[in-house]
Design a protein that fits this description.
Number of domains: 1
Largest sheet: 8 strands, antiparallel, barrel
Mean pLDDT: 79
Helix content: 10-25%
Low-confidence stretches: 1-5, 12-33
Strand order of the largest sheet: 1-2-3-4-5-6-7-8
């Protein structure tokens, strides 16, 4: 009987000791650092992939173009030319620079004792974004030095004086292009553009209105 009683007391003591072990000790005892799987270790050690190089040739990256415009009415004859060079990005974007020259012949001053030819010229920068196969968005900023006529300061003379002024323009609009040749890089384009900075009160503005229509060739 004494042996049975001693066995029961020993069992109760053992259970109390186990129940009093702190949780932190249990957690430390149960926590182990899992080994890193071989595949994960390889992925961590692998170097980052280098960006893909542009394998295009220089001729595929560079575009040359020639744009212009022409119109005539009873008051004026207008001729515009603009050679350009552009960089073609791998996908849909093209950016470039150009130089625009505008010649205007003012017919209503034919009887004046002056040369009735006016000249305008200056640099331009542009960007083209292809929207569909043939349709594209076009934006362009230019800074031109332009000539224009003003009445003479002499109150006893009806002649005109020639003056110059700097003017900037910002065009936005759409264009349609048609490629020719085997690779389709060369072709012709037609643009309809709106000059956001156009002001009717600027008598020296070389453009007839805020809307401009252009025909261009690229190769």
């Amino acid at each position: 009987m004494k042996k049975l009683l001693m066995f029961i007391i020993a069992g109760i003591f053992t259970m109390n000791v186990n129940a009093q072990v702190p949780d932190s000790v249990k957690t430390v005892a149960d926590t182990t650092i899992a080994p890193v799987p071989p595949d994960t270790a390889k992925a961590q050690a692998a170097p980052a992939e280098s960006p893909k190089k542009d394998g295009r040739s220089l001729s595929e990256k560079i575009d040359f173009g020639f744009g212009g415009g022409f119109w005539a009415n009873s008051r004026e004859t207008y001729i515009e030319v603009c050679p350009t060079i552009a960089y073609r990005f791998p996908k849909r974007l093209v950016t470039g620079i150009g130089y625009r020259y505008i010649y205007r012949h003012i017919k209503e001053y034919n009887n004046q004792d002056i040369s009735n030819d006016l000249h305008t010229y200056g640099p331009t920068v542009f960007a083209k974004l292809d929207l569909f196969k043939r349709l594209y968005f076009w934006t362009e900023y230019e800074f031109l030095n332009t000539q224009y006529f003003v009445p003479s300061d002499n109150p006893f003379s009806s002649s005109l004086d020639r003056e110059t002024e700097d003017i900037d323009s910002w065009f936005v609009g759409l264009g349609i292009s048609k490629g020719v040749g085997k690779n389709g890089r060369g072709g012709i384009s037609v643009q309809v553009l709106y000059n956001v900075l156009y002001d009717d009160d600027q008598v020296y503005n070389p453009y007839y209105s805020a809307w401009t229509y252009r025909i261009g060739f690229f190769f």
